[in-house]
Automatic annotation (TrEMBL):
PANTHER family reported for this sequence: ANTI-SIGMA-F FACTOR RSBW, ANTI-SIGMA-F FACTOR RSBW-RELATED
Organism annotation: Streptomyces triticiradicis
Nucleotide-binding recorded as keyword: yes
UniProt cross-references to SUPFAM superfamilies, sorted A to Z: ATPase domain of HSP90 chaperone/DNA topoisomerase II/histidine kinase
Keywords: ATP-binding, Kinase, Nucleotide-binding, Serine/threonine-protein kinase, Transferase
Pfam families reported in the protein's UniProt record: HATPase_c
Coiled coil: none
GO MF annotation list: ATP binding; protein serine/threonine kinase activity
InterPro entries reported in the protein's UniProt record: Anti-sigma-factor_SerPK (IPR050267), HATPase_C_sf (IPR036890), HATPase_dom (IPR003594)
Segment forming the signal sequence: none
Superkingdom to which the source organism belongs: Bacteria
Protein name per Swiss-Prot or TrEMBL: ATP-binding protein
Domain Histidine kinase/HSP90-like ATPase: 50-141
């Protein structure tokens, strides 16, 4: 786990089957969790963050389901930072910054446009065994 995520005082982990209903459930969980943490759903970062999260979970559902029957979402926050990761057990690590400059397609382009537009960061981290990855997003609040 990233040191940043370990340092953030609020954390929540959700593991779901890699199926279409995961998108709705992870978004509902995010909304509930943010509210419990005292982060207003009207904060200007929240709607784009929820869209980013939905796109990343949708990508896992579409592309990783054959090798990853489950996906995990990690939510974290502090007073000035919102962070989350989507993990699955598919080994493909998409080039995020290629998506940011228009060489990617679809959801990852949206993810990167929103992330960078908000002054956030994105990184793909492979599992130690090479058979999975997490996409980590950090956004300022």
């Amino acid at each position: 786990m990233s040191r940043l995520f370990e340092a953030l005082p609020y954390r929540h982990v959700l593991t779901l089957p890699t199926e279409p209903s995961a998108v709705r459930l992870c978004r509902q969980t995010a909304e509930q969790t943010l509210t419990e943490w005292g982060i207003s759903l009207r904060h200007p970062t929240v709607d784009p963050a929820l869209l980013i999260l939905s796109e990343l979970v949708t990508n896992s559902v579409r592309h990783a389901v054959t090798l990853s029957p489950q996906l995990t979402v990690i939510y974290a926050a502090g007073s000035d930072c919102l962070a989350f990761a989507v993990h699955d057990r598919h080994p493909h690590q998409p080039p995020l910054y290629g998506a940011a400059i228009g060489t990617g397609a679809g959801g990852l382009s949206t993810v990167m446009e929103l992330t960078l537009g908000l002054g956030g960061t994105a990184v793909v981290r492979g599992d130690a065994d090479g058979n999975g990855k997490s996409i980590w997003i950090t956004l300022p609040l």
